[in-house]
Structure formats: structure tokens, C-alpha cells
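Standup notes
- DV: blocked on the single-chain target, sequence here:
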Amino acid sequence: MMRQYPDSYYVASLNKNKLSFPAYNGENECDLCVIGGGFTGLSTAIESAKKGLNVILLEKNLIGWGASGRNGGQIWPDVAWGIDIIEKKYGLAFAKQIWDISLNAVKLIDQRIEEFNIDCDKKNGGITAATSNSKMKEYEQEAIYKSKTYGYENLHILDKAQVKKEIGTSLYYGGVLDRGAGHLHPLKYAIGLMNAAHNLGVKIYEDSSVESINETKNSVEVILSSGKVDAKNIAICCNAYLEGLRMNFKNRVMPCETYIVCTESLSTPLQEQILPNDYCVSDTNFDLNYYRLSESKRMVFGGAVGYSLKNVENLKKRTKRQLDKIFPQLSNLKIEYIWGGLIALTMNRVPDIGMESEKIFYAHGFSGHGVAFTGIAGKILAESIANGRTEELELFEKIKHRNFPGGRLFRMPLLVTISAMQRMADIFNV
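- DV (later): unblocked, structure below
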């Protein structure tokens, strides 16, 4: 039976019916089998089909069902770890290459919106808001450094008064406006990519769960309950949804749940004082708050993170408390939608992109920076599949990813403890 999307503002605000695709059945051969129908899998499929490969894409649920259709919709350059930390660990030349890839990831979104005529409410500009004076100083230095060292001219330092004017709250100590950042409606974008892949000849199957993967001398067998795919190569693009796949890289990512609330539309007077220039915002808390206005001028606000699916109601209440703290003037607004979803973290918060073997490729662990980076990751995979391992793939393979300790049972409480300690630091502005 075909699954449904989880209830969210994104599903409710779709402006046209989505194409539906059948469940996989039978036995077929292809050049590439993509497992996962989110941003990464769709990007891999699009780029591979453009190169003339015969592509089958298998999605366990519906296209865009996971994080790709539920996320905050924010687009930022850089990786979640921060380019400065990559530079310290791997050197400036290496960091500049990663930085350039992240900028290309942002540009790729605009290119695809234009190329495939995707209507997804894209807006430009994002503010990183400082929750303490020390964070503001750190952000100021970082903006100056990125301008001087990386030649990135999109950053503009905002003082406390400017941030209050741009965001509509007096909570922050300042911030940095990144004109290269932005936001979009993620589910509309995912469906736009799906249509592009379909029009390029990708054979898409929904409600098609992979049970096992068996690599042979000449191909990879992808086994489903209703048949199998015999592929020359496969790309595993499941991010937080790797359960059931026995892959060596599985323990290098940690699924964690994040929640988003969406209010009713703001009144015209509120629209004039809150995010008047339609920027998205991300603040400096460890469990960062991230928010923006939708096309219909609703506040889409995310923040609460859980490493366990227990206490869902508490996480939801915490998200609403954070929203009220930042915007007391919105406390009477009705919350019309609330939803959660899994993102995948790596230990170092850098995407894990590489090859399990000569025929098995993967990309995951975008650590909250997936809206942009998933697209370029798919392009890197497709180019490596079509033409042999690329320089960009080799670059990501040089980044060392450690397994989360203790297996899944131990990882969850460990990360909850770390998260609680960081929250205490945020409260006391450490």
C-alpha cells in the first residue's frame, strides 16, 4: 500500500498534484541503481541520466518523504563543521577546495530551478544571529577572515540594532548577513527534481523497500521482496534511513530527530516588523534555532533536537518555548502544523561521500547542511560513476570519519548527554 507524507505545512501547501510511481516488480538490468528518493538520490539520478546512463531509482516511501521534504528549507554555503576547522586539520589548499564545492552547491540550486522550471518559493539571504557578545566577536572575525582568505564577499556584519531591525527581536547581540544564503520550499523543490529525473528517462519506483545488496563479480544485485535489480553500479543515498542495509559505513552516521512548527499567517503589522526582507535565520545555540517566513507569511521555526524518539511532546513544547522567547509578539499566534524528521549527523559534521567498493557509491551525513550539499554530492557521485573516481570524490575520501561509539544503543544517551551540556553552556552564554 502506498505510504502518505507525514502531515506538514509543506504537504498542505503543494500547489499541484505530485506524480505517483508504481512499486518495483520483476527483474531488470541497469547501469545505475539509486537507492533513496531524496535530494541526494534525485541529484545522482539526474546527473547520471544526463550522461546517458540507464538509471533505476528505488524509494522505500514516496519521493521526498524523508528529510528532503520536511527540512527547514535553508540554504547555506560551508559545511556544518565550519571551514575554519577543516583548514586547521587539512590545510588551507584543501579547505579552499571544500569551500568552493560548497559555493557550487548553492549555485547548483539556482541552476536547477532555472533549467527545470521548478516553482519552489526560493528567496535569497540568510542571517547568522549571535546569542552572546563572545559569539558576535567570533562571527565578526570569521566574516573578515572568509572575506580575506577565501575571497567571499557576501558577508555583511550587522550590529545589535541592525539585527533587531532585520529579524524583529531584541534577543540577539548582532549577526552576519550572508547574501549567498537563502531558503526555499523543500518538498516543492524535491518534486521538481523528481519531475526532472522522470523527464530525463529515470525509471522511478516508490513504495519499494530494498531488503539486501549482493555484490557479484560483474554487477550488484539489489534484492526487493518483489524482485531484483541487476546494476553495474549502485548509489546508496539514504542518509538517516540506512536501517536494514548491512554496509560498513552505517555506523559513521547518527540519525537524530528535529522538530519544526509552523504558525498561522502573520498579520500585516507583524509582517512589517518580522523578517521584513524575507531572510532566513540560524542562531548560534548548539541546538540551533532556525526559522524563516513561508511564501504565505507563516513562521516556519525549527530547533528542538532529540536523539531518541521518546518524549516527542516535550520536544514539541521546547520548540514552541524557543519561538516564544525569540518572538514574544507571536506567542498568541496559533501553531497550525508541527512535524519532525530525521537528519543524519557525522562525528565531525562533514558529509561522508565515497565508495564502499568499486561498484557501490554513497553520500550521507549532511549534518543539517543538506539542502545545498546533497545536490553537489549527487553530482560528484554521478561523475565518478560515469567517468571514474573524480578529484572531488577523492577529496571527500581524505576526510576521516569515525564510527559513533558503542553502537546504536550507546550512541543515543551519549549524544543526549553532550547536547545537555552544550545547552547549559548556551544558557550561561559560555
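- Follow-up: The radius of gyration is 21 Å.
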